[in-house]
Design goal:
This protein folds into five domains: 56 residues, no CATH class; 79 residues, OB fold (Dihydrolipoamide Acetyltransferase, E2P) (Beta Barrel), CATH 2.40.50; 68 residues, Beta Barrel (OB fold (Dihydrolipoamide Acetyltransferase, E2P)); 69 residues, OB fold (Dihydrolipoamide Acetyltransferase, E2P); 72 residues, OB fold (Dihydrolipoamide Acetyltransferase, E2P), CATH 2.40.50. Helix content is 20%, strand content 36%. It has ten helices and 22 strands.
Length: 431
C-alpha cells in the first residue's frame, strides 16, 4: 500500500483572528504535515484568543502518562523523562521541592490531613502529598463519619498508593484506629495514662471487651474494680476510666485495668476523708468475716465495720449470714489509720477532742504542775501534765535531785513547765 493511501483525511477546528471557527478539511497530507500546519497557524495567536480545546485535542502529550518520579504540586503533570526535568520544573514554577519525608508516602502509613472536599461516596483529603487521598465514605465507620467534615483535620491511613485509576486510596477509620492503638501502646510502659472506655461486652468467666475510641481492648474481671464485683453484668454498657497495662500476645489485644485507675485515686480520696470525716455515708458490702463486714465506698476506698460497731439489727443479720456482697449499708468514719486501713462504725461516736487545743491558754509558762509519771527512760522521765499530754523531764534537769531508780509509772511528781511547743506537740519540764 502506498504512502499516499496510508495518509488519513483529518478534520480539525481552528480559530481565525476574527474569532470565527471554521472547519478545515485536509486531504492527502501526512499527520506530521498536518501538525506543522496547525502549529504555524496558531503560533502568533494572542493568549486571550487561543483555542485551548483545539490545542489539547491536537497536543501530542494527550495520550502520554505523567512522569511518576517528578515531585510536582497538586494538579501539575510533567511528561518529560529527561534527567533535568525536575530541575526545570523547579525553575519554571519557582517551586521548591519539599522534603522527601513530606512528599513520599507509604502504604499503611498514617498521615494527618485536612478534608478538602466531600460527597456521598468519596472524601478528598489533603495530606501535603502531590495528590489528594480519597476515602470511600461508604466504608467508613459510623462513629468516624462525623469527623470527616470540610476543613477538619483528620488522621488517614493510606491503603493504596494508586488504584486502577491512579488514585491514592485511604481510610480515616483505619487511620484513627491505628493512631489510637499507637497512642495506647506507647502509654503502657508509663502506666499513668487513663482513657475513657465503654464496656461493650462481657466475656463469661473471662472479663470484658472495652472499646476505647474504636479500639477493642480486654479487661480481666479481676481488674474491673478494687474489690471483686458483686454483679458482673452491672457494668456492661457503662463508661469508665481504664489504664493500659500490657499487651496480650495470646489474645492479640491490649489489656486495660480499671483497678489501676482506682488505686491512683486512693491517696486524694483518703486525704479528703481526713479533712471531712463526719456524717453518715453509704457503701456496698464487698464481703464479710467472723470479725466484721468489709465495705467499699467513694468509688475506690475500702473499710471494715467490726462486729462490735454494727447496729443490733445488722449484727443479727451478720450472725445469720444474711449480709451479702452488693448490699447497701450505712456507716460513719471511725478512724483513718492509713490509705489501706479505714475503720468504720454504724454506732454514734462521741466527737474527738484534741487535748492539745488551747494548751497554751490552760498552762502558763513558767508554771508548776503536779503530773503523773508515764514512763522512765535512760534519757529522762515522761510525765502526763494533763490527760493525753505528756512532757519530758530530761535527765540533764534531774542531776542529783531525784533517784530515778525509785521512780515508777503512775507516781505523782511536781514539775515546772519551761516551754510548750504546740506545733510539734512537745512540753519541756524541770524540777
Amino acid at each position: 500500500m502506498s504512502q499516499d493511501v496510508k495518509q488519513k483525511t483529518k478534520r480539525e477546528r481552528i480559530s481565525t483572528n476574527q474569532g470565527d471557527q471554521v472547519e478545515v478539511i485536509q486531504k492527502g497530507e501526512s499527520q506530521t504535515q498536518q501538525k506543522e500546519a496547525y502549529w504555524k497557524e496558531n503560533a502568533n495567536v494572542p493568549m486571550d484568543e487561543f483555542d485551548w480545546d483545539a490545542h489539547q485535542a491536537e497536543c501530542p502529550t494527550m495520550f502520554r502518562k505523567p512522569n511518576p518520579k517528578i515531585n510536582a504540586p497538586h494538579g501539575v503533570k510533567v511528561f518529560s523523562r529527561e534527567p533535568y526535568a525536575q530541575d526545570m520544573l523547579n525553575l519554571l514554577m519557582g517551586f521548591e521541592a519539599a522534603k522527601p519525608a513530606q512528599m513520599e508516602i507509604t502504604e499503611g502509613g498514617i498521615y494527618t490531613g485536612t478534608v478538602y472536599s466531600i460527597n456521598q461516596e468519596f472524601a478528598a483529603i489533603d495530606i501535603g502529598y502531590r495528590e489528594n487521598v480519597y476515602v470511600n465514605m461508604l466504608k467508613e465507620e459510623a462513629g468516624v463519619k462525623p469527623l470527616i467534615v470540610v476543613n477538619n483535620e483528620v488522621k488517614v491511613q493510606v491503603l493504596s498508593k494508586g488504584n486502577t485509576r491512579g488514585y491514592v486510596l485511604g481510610s480515616v477509620s483505619a487511620g484513627v484506629k491505628t493512631a489510637v492503638v499507637s497512642d495506647i501502646m506507647s502509654s503502657i510502659e508509663g502506666g499513668t495514662t487513663a482513657y475513657v472506655g465503654t464496656i461493650s461486652e462481657m466475656i463469661p468467666g473471662g472479663g470484658y471487651i472495652v472499646n476505647i475510641q474504636g479500639v477493642d481492648c480486654f479487661m480481666p474481671g479481676s481488674l474491673a474494680g478494687i474489690n471483686k464485683l458483686a454483679d458482673f453484668e452491672s457494668i456492661v454498657g457503662t463508661d469508665m476510666y481504664v489504664v493500659p497495662v500490657s499487651f496480650s500476645t495470646k489474645r492479640g489485644t491490649i489489656v486495660v485495668s480499671h483497678r489501676e485507675y482506682l488505686k491512683a485515686m486512693i491517696p486524694n480520696k483518703v486525704e479528703a476523708l481526713r479533712e471531712s470525716p463526719d456524717g453518715e455515708r453509704t457503701g456496698k458490702v464487698t464481703g464479710s468475716a467472723k470479725y466484721g463486714v468489709f465495705v467499699e465506698f467513694d468509688d475506690c476506698l475500702t473499710g471494715m465495720i467490726h462486729v462490735n460497731d454494727l447496729t443490733p439489727e445488722m449484727l443479727k443479720k451478720h450472725k445469720a449470714r444474711e449480709i451479702q456482697p452488693g448490699d447497701d449499708i450505712n456507716f460513719r468514719i471511725k478512724e483513718v489509720v492509713s490509705d489501706t486501713k479505714i475503720i468504720l462504725t454504724q454506732l454514734e461516736t462521741a466527737p474527738v477532742i484534741d487535748p492539745w487545743e488551747g494548751i497554751e491558754q490552760r498552762i502558763q509558762v513558767p508554771s508548776e504542775v503536779v503530773g503523773v509519771v508515764k514512763a522512765v527512760k535512760d534519757y529522762g522521765i515522761f510525765i502526763d501534765v494533763e490527760p493525753g499530754i505528756a512532757g519530758l523531764l530530761h535527765i540533764s534537769e534531774i542531776q542529783d535531785l531525784i533517784d530515778t531508780s525509785t521512780i515508777k509509772s503512775g507516781d505523782n511528781i511536781t514539775v515546772q513547765v519551761t516551754r510548750i511547743d504546740s506545733a510539734t506537740r512537745k512540753i519541756f519540764l524541770k524540777i
